[in-house]
Design a protein that fits this description.
InterPro entries: F-box-like_dom_sf, F-box_dom, FBXL15_LRR, Leu-rich_rpt_Cys-con_subtyp, LRR_dom_sf. Residues 16-56 form the F-box domain. This is F-box domain-containing protein. By secondary structure, this protein is an alpha/beta fold. Helices cover 42% and strands 9% of the residues. The protein contains ten helices and seven strands. The protein has helices at 4-14, 18-25, 31-37, 42-54, 67-76, 96-103, 124-133, 149-158, 175-184, 200-209, and strands at residues 57-59, 82-84, 113-115, 139-141, 164-166, 190-192, 214-216. It is elongated, with a radius of gyration of 21 Å. The N and C termini lie far apart (65 Å).
């Protein structure tokens, strides 16, 4: 049974202005905790909503979360710049449907960094939809997905500010897609193609287009005798 001090403490926190409450909630990084906070009262729900609107970075890596939950949170994050929904041990289970919903968010055009690393449910269907809207993207990690050259064409056509891209183990992309990407994204500084297989001539072509391009790992550079799988 609550005593008078419990009621007093509860009354004091309920008396906080919503903007101050949202400032406090802004420091909560656990999404399950934020979900619980939003259930306290109507004011707390509004506070959580406002705190999400101020966030410049959302990291779902390692969270057990689905398409609907991620999309709903991203739609509330009006100031978002960096989005990480990489798969980890427990993993996000995000699919092309989730990327389609995320691509409709107002913040997508302002995103500078996206990581979809290891998301095996991602194909060209979702990736093309997302990158076509993320026109200010500078850093993209799409390694471990099942994209093909179709996604690289979309990235090349839409992401002119791209500086780095990770294509780790994207075995369905080809030399044609890589050459198109580097030719279109003239600000590209780094490309990681570990776990793929390309002829040495491909990397000579990339460096011809962009001599300062950093190709990772370095064992794939033209002076290497073998291209590892």
């Amino acid at each position: 049974m609550q005593n008078m001090w419990d009621f007093k403490e509860e009354a004091e926190i309920e008396s906080l202005p919503t903007d101050l409450l949202s400032h406090i909630l802004f420091f909560i990084t656990s999404f399950p905790d934020l979900a619980q906070a939003s259930c306290v009262s109507k004011k707390w729900r509004e506070g959580v909503k406002q705190s999400l609107g101020r966030r410049k970075s959302l990291n779902f890596s390692g969270c057990i979360i689905d398409d609907v939950s991620v999309a709903r949170l991203v739609h509330l994050a009006f100031s978002l710049k960096e989005l990480d929904i990489s798969r980890s041990r427990w993993g996000c289970q995000i699919t092309d449907n989730g990327l389609f919903e995320i691509s409709m968010a107002k913040c997508v055009g302002n995103l500078t960094s996206i990581s979809l690393w290891g998301m095996t449910g991602i194909t060209d269907k979702g990736a093309v939809q997302l990158v076509s809207k993320a026109t200010n993207l500078q850093h993209l990690n799409i390694g471990g997905t099942f994209i093909t050259d179709e996604s690289l064409f979309a990235i090349g056509n839409s992401c002119q500010h791209l500086k780095s891209i990770v294509l780790w183990s994207c075995r369905h992309v080809t030399e044609i897609g890589l050459l198109f990407l580097v030719n279109k994204c003239r600000k590209l500084e780094s490309i990681n193609v570990w776990g793929t297989r390309f002829p040495v001539d491909c990397f000579i072509g990339l460096l011809t287009i962009s001599p300062a391009l950093q190709i990772k790992p370095t064992s794939l550079l033209p002076n290497a005798e073998a291209i590892p799988v």
